[in-house]
């Protein structure tokens, strides 16, 4: 059963109406003291209503008071809860976020929410993906190694891959192909029982492409035959949908990020820095990251536009327009939160931040603003 939350709750003060047919009194120069005092009290109350309303609003729970900074971050809710993961649909205004034991669903860019139960036994969610063509179709991976699928935005769940009970490492990543919606992949990270799996029927059935510990994978946005994967100490690339692989050494790699429009260029997320590979290893360049940066995303239409989220409280979100060569703080109105993850929606026009103190969305020129953030 779902439960709705409306963050736009506001105060309504009852208006007093003057009764009709009231008997008029004759004008009199005499004004009783109580009448003068009463009139003064009414004037004081009326003049003080804005301050009173602001004071009462400040005492309302933060989860019900979205705040917006012009051309800045808009608070969407869940202030007293840690948001672990966030995922947004590519074209629809649908966004999902994972709280401690709950999946929150919004169909209006985060203005209102419905809360759904996670699958039974899904204590820690480690991966969340939304189908490219269907915003109600989800894949959800867990620390215990199970992969679940939902066709109704998390109202019901079905186990689609459990692996070997004796060898079931955590699901480290799951995703749908941006141009072939029926194609999906997921990875497991353990030495024993890890690997990369692929589905061609919207995640209903799976076949294994590779074994061993896989930290994550990525589709190249412009060519569905090109697939990347991150393995401890190496990065792999396939140009035939996973049938054959080539590998490069990449010590400390944690995540691989393809650059849209440039099939020979990829970003590798390392500990505290990025490794930019061009020509599939013919050129490698190390660039620094902001302090505490643990998540990085690339704009789907501009490979030089990056965002980094820092787990260090107060560092917030950073933005680069030159492929990581330089970074500028991108945290106006965000506060001193720890950023757990970032996600882009609406083809890069909506940027979400999952933090230690709720969910936020960057709104260019206020809510509903157009253009890339």
Your description of this structure?
With 373 residues, this protein is mainly β. It has 3 domains: 32-65; 67-117 and 289-373, no CATH class; 119-214, TolB, C-terminal domain (Neuraminidase). It is built from 1 helix and 29 strands. It is globular, with a radius of gyration of 26 Å. The two termini are 35 Å apart. Residues 1-31 and 33-70 have low confidence and may be disordered.
Features:
373 residues; mainly beta; Neuraminidase; 3 domains; five-stranded antiparallel sheet; four-stranded antiparallel sheet; disordered N terminus
Secondary structural class: mainly beta
Major sheet attributes: 5 strands, antiparallel
What integer value in Å does the Rg equal? Answer: 26 Å
Average predicted confidence as pLDDT: 80
How much of the sequence is in beta strands? 35-45%
Helix content: under 10%
Helices and strands in order:
Blueprint: E1 3-5, H1 33-59, E2 72-77, E3 85-88, E4 95-98, E5 102-106, E6 113-117, E7 125-130, E8 138-142, E9 147-150, E10 158-161, E11 171-176, E12 184-188, E13 195-199, E14 207-211, E15 216-219, E16 227-231, E17 234-238, E18 246-249, E19 255-258, E20 265-269, E21 273-278, E22 283-288, E23 293-298, E24 306-310, E25 317-320, E26 328-329, E27 339-345, E28 350-355, E29 358-363
